[in-house]
């Protein structure tokens, strides 16, 4: 769980929060349903578009504020300025230079990049750490700019509104989808628009256009697809990075880009390996354990100084805004998040006053010396849901721990609710409090050596396959000249971001 949102968090049930967002989108679409067919700025072709440019920008602006608040930006002004400048140079060469373009680095270790309508573009620190050159990064940004200039998302938004509605209700009332709910939680459905194959192809073409117009090296673009292929293989059974989930078939895209580049015979351009690597040195790598980590089923949050015991065998995931655990049969869940109240009493009252929530009982309690309120309630839904919650004060903050279970299966969660809700306590272990994140370091070879030799001389706690991927190593035995700069991961990995096995579907 999360950074500290301070005194302005929204501690409502997710229902309230999501409904607000969805209502906003629905209102926007109702208001603009009167527009009509317009020509696509990037292609000049006529296409159906319900939105004026002002509405498009406003939609992006609102979503941008939510993304920045929920996902958070990397606290590195130089890195932000660098990506912003690079993106701005590309966007200035696009068909829509007048949009309020913005380029931000999101504090997320997953390999991901995405765009919102109106020119709001994001790359994660995860994808940055895997980039080998400025031109490669420019091809990622160019692709996302292409989605905006060709207005792909506007088209998708209306198509997905119904689906988002379904997901929304599901994510709140039915624990089955809790494991997939990260997509909903992470800002907006807007982020996870799936574009069609044609849209992806067009965004690749537009990206290549902006890249070459700006004088960057076109041959760096296929490396982006190689990286996506490799990341996809590494992800294996694990969590699929979002960009891969929404951008299938990197191999075919690589082949196509290589063909285009060969046919068009672009003059050689700027690669910019050094300028990128300079900025990547010191960037946080992987999950930041200061925002919480698991050791077995125990969760530690050094940043907020608490610990918690999750039910053994449940799948638990530390997300930005919450910690969520799901029963193996997906009939129950426990969620921890900030409550937007000054006291446990106020938090409990606000929670129990929500529409659809019926109070059964509530009482003051103390949990490991912390003042708290415990409550039992039921939740209106097609299949009845029983709930148990604990609101607990730790320092200036109030946390809410909410267990939900289908009433007809309540017995399976009784013990877990009791032990987990009662396990919240102050984290005092100095070693656990002092964890530090891993970081990217850029190392220059003093003498020629192969990748394998480098890896032997620089042992790292990071997955060697991922390190090789980050360095675009194609032949690990090939000699690299002295002066070659390679990325290396410094520091030890502290704990995991998940506990328990993913439920079998
Ligand atoms: Zn795309």
Structural overview:
There is one protein chain. This protein has helices spanning 14-32, 53-71, 77-91, 125-130, 134-149, 152-173, 182-185, 197-213, 221-235, 242-246, 250-264, 273-280, 344-352, 414-421, 430-433, 451-457, 464-470; strands at residues 36-39, 46-49, 102-106, 113-116, 120-124, 284-285, 293-295, 298-301, 306-309, 315-318, 323-326, 332-338, 357-367, 370-379, 385-394, 397-406, 425-426, 438-444, 449-450, 479-480, 485-490, 498-499. With 505 residues, it is α+β, with helices and mostly antiparallel strands. The protein has two domains: 35-280, no CATH class; 306-426, 3-Layer(aba) Sandwich (Protein Transport Mog1p, Chain A). The strands form six sheets. The protein has an eight-stranded antiparallel β-sheet, with helices on both faces. A hairpin with a 4-residue loop joins strand 8 (298-301) and strand 9 (306-309). Helix 5 packs across helix 9 (221-235). It is globular. The model is unreliable at 4-37 and 158-192 (pLDDT under 50). Residues 143, 147, 195, 200, 203, 247 line the site of zinc ion (ZN).
- Which whole number gives the mean pLDDT? 82
Measured as a percent range, the helix fraction is 25-40%
Shape: globular
Query: Ligands bound here?
Result: zinc ion
The DSSP helix count reads 17
Assembly type:
single chain
Q: Assess the beta-strand content as a share of residues.
A: 15-25%
Number of strands: 22
CA-atom Rg in angstroms? 24 Å
Whole-number count of domains: 2
| Sheet with the most strands, sense and barrel status | 8 strands, antiparallel
Low-confidence stretches: 4-37, 158-192
């Amino acid at each position: 769980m999360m950074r500290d949102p301070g005194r302005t968090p929204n501690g409502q049930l997710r229902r309230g929060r999501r409904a607000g967002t969805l209502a906003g989108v629905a209102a926007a679409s109702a208001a603009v349903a009167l527009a009509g067919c317009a020509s696509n700025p990037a292609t000049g072709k006529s296409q159906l578009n319900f939105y004026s440019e002002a509405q498009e920008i406003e939609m992006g602006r609102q979503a941008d504020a939510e993304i920045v608040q929920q996902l958070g930006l990397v606290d590195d002004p130089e890195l932000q300025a660098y990506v912003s400048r690079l993106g701005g140079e590309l966007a200035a060469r696009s068909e829509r230079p007048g949009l309020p373009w913005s380029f931000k680095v999101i504090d997320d270790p997953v390999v991901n990049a995405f765009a919102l309508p109106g020119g709001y573009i994001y790359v994660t620190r995860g994808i940055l750490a895997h980039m080998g050159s400025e031109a490669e990064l420019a091809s990622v940004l160019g692709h996302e700019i292409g989605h905006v200039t060709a207005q792909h998302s506007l088209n998708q938004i209306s198509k997905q509104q119904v689906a988002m509605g379904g997901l929304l209700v599901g994510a709140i009332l039915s624990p089955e989808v809790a494991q997939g709910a990260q997509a909903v939680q992470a800002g907006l459905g807007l982020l996870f628009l799936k574009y069609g194959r044609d849209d992806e192809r067009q965004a690749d073409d537009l990206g290549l256009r902006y890249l070459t117009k700006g004088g960057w090296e076109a041959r760096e673009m296929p490396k982006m697809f190689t990286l996506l292929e490799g990341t996809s293989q590494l992800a294996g059974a694990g969590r699929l990075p979002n960009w891969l989930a929404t951008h299938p078939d990197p191999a075919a895209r690589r082949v196509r880009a290589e063909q285009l580049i060969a046919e068009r015979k672009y003059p050689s351009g700027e690669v910019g390996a050094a300028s990128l690597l300079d900025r990547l040195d010191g960037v946080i790598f992987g999950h930041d354990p200061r925002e919480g980590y698991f050791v077995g089923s125990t969760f530690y949050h050094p940043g907020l100084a608490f610990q918690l015991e999750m039910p053994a065998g449940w799948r638990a995931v530390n997300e930005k805004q919450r910690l969520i655990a799901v029963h193996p049969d997906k009939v129950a869940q426990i969620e921890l998040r900030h409550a937007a109240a000054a006291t446990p009493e106020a938090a409990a009252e606000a929670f129990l006053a929500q529409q659809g929530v019926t109070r059964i009982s509530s009482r003051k309690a103390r949990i490991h010396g912390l003042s708290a309120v415990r409550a039992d309630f039921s939740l209106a839904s097609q299949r009845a849901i029983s709930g148990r919650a604990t609101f607990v004060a730790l320092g200036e903050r109030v946390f809410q721990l909410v267990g939900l279970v289908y009433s007809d299966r309540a017995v399976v969660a009784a013990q877990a609710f009791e032990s987990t809700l009662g396990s919240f306590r102050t984290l005092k272990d100095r070693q656990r409090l002092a964890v530090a994140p891993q970081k990217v370091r850029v190392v220059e070879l003093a003498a020629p050596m192969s990748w394998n030799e480098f890896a032997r001389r620089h042992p790292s706690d990071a997955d060697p396959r991922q390190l090789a991927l980050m360095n675009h190593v194609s032949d690990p035995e090939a000699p690299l000249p002295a002066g070659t700069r390679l990325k290396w991961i410094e520091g030890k990995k502290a704990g995991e971001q998940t506990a328990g096995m993913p439920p079998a579907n």
